[in-house]
Amino acid sequence: MNDINIIVDENIFHSVPTPDMSYGIWAIFGIGLMLLVCILLGFFSRKKAKSFEAFLSGHNDIGPVITGLALGATWLSGWATLGMMGVTYQVGWSGMWFGGMWTIIGVMPCLFFTGEKMQMYAQKFGARTVSDALGIRFDSRIVQSLSALVMIFFMILYAVGQFKAGATIWYAVTGLPAIWCLLLAGLIVFIYMIVGGYTGTQWSLALQGALLGIGCFILGIVALNFVGGPSALNMKLAAENPALTDLIRRDLPSVGNTQLFSSPVGILATLFIFLTMATGFPHNVARFLGMRKLNKKDYMLITLMVFLVAGPPIFLNAITGLCSRAVFGPHLLDVKPWKADLAAPFLSIVAGGKPVTTLYVVGVFAAALSTLSAMVMVMAGNVTRDIIHVWRPNMSHNTLLKLTKVFIGIFLLIPFYWTFKRPPALLAIFMGYASIGLGGIFIFCTAFSFYWKRATAFGAVLCMVYGVIATLIGSIFVTKGKIGMGTLEFIVLIGCGFVYFFGSLVTKPLPQEKLKKLFGGENV
Amino acid sequence: MNNWSAWWLIVIASTLFTVLGLFLRIRGWKNE
Predict the structure, then answer these.
(1) Residue A190: what pLDDT?
(2) Domain extents for chain A?
(3) How many CA atoms are closer than 13 Å to the CA of A419, on its beta-carbon side?
(4) Is A242 exposed, middle or buried, given 0-12, 13-18 or 19+ CB atoms closer than 10 A?
(5) pLDDT lower than 70: segments of chain A
(6) What is the pTM of this model?
(7) Which residue from A342, A366, A344 is spatially nearest to A356, judged by alpha carbons?
(8) What is the CA radius of gyration of chain B?
(9) Helix, strand, coil % in chain B, rounded to nearest 5
(10) Does the CB of A112 have a partner CB in chain B at under 8 Å?
(11) Contact A173, A24 (CB under 8 A)
């Protein structure tokens, strides 16, 4: 990214910390403790999942507090707890739009519009995965299997981001070479998935949701206090480069990924990215599959839980990244390959010392682990339930259960190897592509289809095919600087919507009787 | 607009969005 070169008095910046093992030992202790509690929680709370179905999504008996915290945990990932600070660190205030300020505007519609529907598909029709629910909705095995493939494709990209987040944290607290940091991160995920919480139980996810909320919130307050409060923050940023305080950085190119910071089109696109991705993420929507039917009070509780985890801590993350820029100046960009993503971990070391750093590190791991494990579960279930089982219904459930576990290993190894070979430069940008694809496709195929009776399998298939192709080709154009990343969001979203509605309207809807079962008696 | 004002505006708008959404969602809710 092109930063204007301004001669700055280097003495105003704090020196970049040199990581040593003293923080690593605290981090190991904190993360170890979290893993232990997760494993114990999984052990005591989980009814043993003997059947293939129960392994995938539990027993439809989980309450609103746990479901709400778990949704917060899967929604927020390495992007929210690390990548977001990386963005505001790198470009200043204009990064907050893409960094995650739309978090609540994004996640609440997921809860309001898909929660109850998903719960109904699980309880009434026995849906065990999101693709399963889509297969039932469209009465189509092709939709079920194709959606599974599309989800796997995009989620592998997203999983790469989680590994980088874990590895970055290890570098910040130990200073070990990149490969060791990545191995450490991979090892922890592996232990977590295999020993204790590998079913991604809602209880472990809920604990992780609470931890990441507390960790980020405290770091935000400490960081702002460290730089001397709101106006001091702006003064320090302006002293380095006045453009850092701009809400739109017009000095950056308006094509490529910088469009998200430099033009109104790009900034408007960030709102749509967040609005569609929360509902488009299958690992979010899957949280409702194991939920019990809610009453009014339950509904208020689940909303409060999601707000507490996904709201204030994440709003503060934008500020943490800015504080880091004010403290270190641009010098973190020189620390390869981690660069801007070190903004928050290094600031926690300088401003908060060992207790805050440990809490924050545990929070990042909680966020990355919860998202990654939920995604790996969704991907493994997609293969066995929505692809193999659909086309080979006679295969024994025991074999399917074993196969699911094998695929958990495979879907952990692929992103691990990818991160090892080619770690993405800036987490949020990399994960943004996956979000554009998943969000653009599944906001229609999932959310709209739950309410629009006229939607058909053909419309859904067209939408998925278009979404994948447009995101893939478009991302090449963005990388080459031909179009902006915000423009790509609109190309994907508007195009997906068009082919979804067009494809649905030119084909016959499901028979009335079937629709009555799915939608109840009312006309939609 | 001042950047802190924009930040507060989104925080407040998000809170209102949540409260309003919740209100609309549970209006007329039948406990079964």
Answers:
(1) 75
(2) 64-519
(3) 32
(4) middle
(5) 1-11, 42-61, 194-201, 425, 521-524
(6) 0.87
(7) A344
(8) 14
(9) 75, 0, 25
(10) yes
(11) yes
Determine the pLDDT at residue A9.
Answer: 59
pLDDT of residue A77: 82
Mutate: best of B2, B5, B7, B17, partner A, most A CBs <10 A: B7
Q: Is A256 in a helix, a strand, or coil?
A: strand
pLDDT for position A322: 96
User: How high is the pLDDT of residue A3?
Assistant: 46
Phi-psi region of A175 (alpha: psi -120 to 50; beta: other; left: phi over 0): left
Partners of residue A291 on adjacent β-strands: A62
Residue from B11, B12, B5, B30 nearest A313 by CA: B11
Strand, helix or coil for residue A374: helix
Give the model's pLDDT for residue A166: 84
Contact A238, A76 (CB under 8 A): no
**Cβ pair A286, A129 in contact under 8 A:** yes
Measured CA to CA, the distance from residue A439 to residue A448 in angstroms comes to 12
Amino acid at A235: M
Give the bridge partners for A256, in sequence order: A484
If you search the block for the tokens 């704090």, which residue do you land on?
A14
Query: Is domain A64-519 annotated with CATH 1.20.1730.10?
Result: yes
Whether B15 and A104 lie within 8 Å, measured CB to CB: yes
Percent of chain B scoring above 90 in pLDDT:
66
Q: How many CB atoms are closer than 10 A to CB A508?
A: 9
* Cis peptide, bond prior to residue A511, ω within 30 of zero: no
Is A125 near chain B, with CB under 8 Å?
no
ipTM greater than 0.85: yes
CA A513 – CA A507 distance, rounded (Å): 17
pLDDT of A140 reads: 94
Q: Give yes or no for A45 touching B (CB within 8 A).
A: no
Closest Cα partner for A72 from B13, B18, B8, B10? B18
